[in-house]
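User: Can you model how zinc ion sits in this protein?
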Amino acid sequence: MRVVCAKCNEKMENVVLDKYEYVKRFPLYNVPAYQCKKCSNLFFMEKMVKDMEKRTKELKVNAFGFERAIAVSGKGLVLRMPSDLVSHLKLKEGENVKIIPVDHKGFLVERISQQS
Ligand SMILES: [Zn+2]
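Assistant: Here's the modeled complex, given as structure tokens:
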């Protein structure tokens, strides 16, 4: 099938990407795609997108995680850190973290600085 780049009208090549994040922070490996030789623009057929969605979903299901209920403190909501996670990451009181939304359902909490 002939696929043409939407940006520069060049013929796109069938490639396999070593690594591609369909959803940020959930990298997929060996992802089939169409790529423009001229501008590197990527294009995915519907079937390719469906496959990436399925693979990302599997990654999320198998990801290491904890289930917690959200509590209320004053006007805000509080999420308690599981002690296993605290010791695994060697987190201490007073450390700063950054909360980054991942998609419409979740967020990632990342340490800003590590105290020595
Ligand atoms: Zn192009």
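A couple of observations from the model: The pocket of zinc ion is lined by residues 5, 7-8, 10, 36, 38-39, 41 (CB under 6 Å). The mean pLDDT is 90.
User: Helpful, thanks.
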